[in-house]
Amino acid sequence: MALVHDFLLSLRGGERVFLALCDLFPDATVYSPVYNEDGTEGRFSARGVTTSYLQNLRPSSSNFRGLLPFYPRAVESLDMSEFDLIISSSSAWSHGVIAHEGQRHVCYSHNPFRYAWDQRLDATRGRPLPVRKALERILGRWRSWDRAVAREVDVYVANGEITRERLARSFGRSSSVLHPPVDVGRFRTGHAGERFVVLSELMPHKRIDVIVQACSQMGVPLTVMGDGPDLRRLRSLAGDTVEFTGRVADSEVAERLSGCAALIQCATEEFGIASVEAQASGRPVLALAAGGALETVMPGQSGALFASADVETMVSALGSFDPGSFDPAACRASAERFSKGAFAVGLAKAVDSLDGVPMAPRERQSVRRRGLWRPATA
């Protein structure tokens, strides 16, 4: 068996799901086009991650985005020929790994690559014209490549309803839903404090700017945990009650979540592992009523939902939200719906279902592997 992930450069939600896959299949060979042992805190070092030629460029979480056009070709270059079963963990390109005749490929999808599909306008907006034109061409090629490689996946498993819908709309592929696993045992209920928290990669599409501005306007204490390219802009928007910790260790995350007032989430998340981690800590979640929050947050029991991602709505939601009105035990019970055990059972069902699924075409075996630049077949 082979396990394949888009990139292993840091520990975010997708990488934590991949860690759970590695735990479920301890004898599987692990692949990723690029890998950084320090960035992933050595969590994969015992597995001997097999990488692509892009590894020669020493990628990290700060520079890997510059290699964007080369990842499809890199994942196609990974040699899967010796395996019976391939499980890819994909939010962008790992579903494009090439399977051969007689092999089966299950893709656990976190989302079709957002900047090629549902957020492609965000990827080009505000850029100089030559850069915008180049990006539009690359992303157009990417969509063609995505559709072509999606035909060769035997079974898709989506991490939530919004991803299931996007797979159908973008790739024309049906899928079952299996929510990601959360290590609820890592978290303990503590004493609730006054500070609200954000736990996220700091990217513009996460809409953390709305949370920062609302809390600054109201004088609400807020701690932002995480790092990313939007950090400088968010700092410029923050008032005196907002603090930024950068990326923090798991132990500190657990401590801060157990002692917070609540976690705030303002993006349309495909699932939202951080919100489940907060609930596992006995704390409620204040989240945008969209995407994974509709599946993970139980209004009135483990949190509350607000209607739109703008500062005015956020201020109103914060003004009516009482963190002390939520029972920590009810929050914890909500989180336990997404345990590793439930994930293991669901994934086993997906693998077993292969017996009743005809093998997908294997057209790319005979085509020169050129990533985005080979002749389109979709």
Automatic annotation (TrEMBL):
InterPro entries to which the protein is assigned, alphabetical: Glyco_trans_1 (IPR001296), Glyco_trans_4-like_N (IPR028098), Glycosyltransferase_grp1 (IPR050194)
One Pfam family in the UniProt entry: Glycos_transf_1
Record-level Gene Ontology MF annotations: glycosyltransferase activity
Record domain Glycosyltransferase subfamily 4-like N-terminal: where: 13-185
Matches recorded under SUPFAM superfamilies: UDP-Glycosyltransferase/glycogen phosphorylase
Chain ranges of the Glycosyl transferase family domain: 195-318
Record-given protein name: Unannotated protein
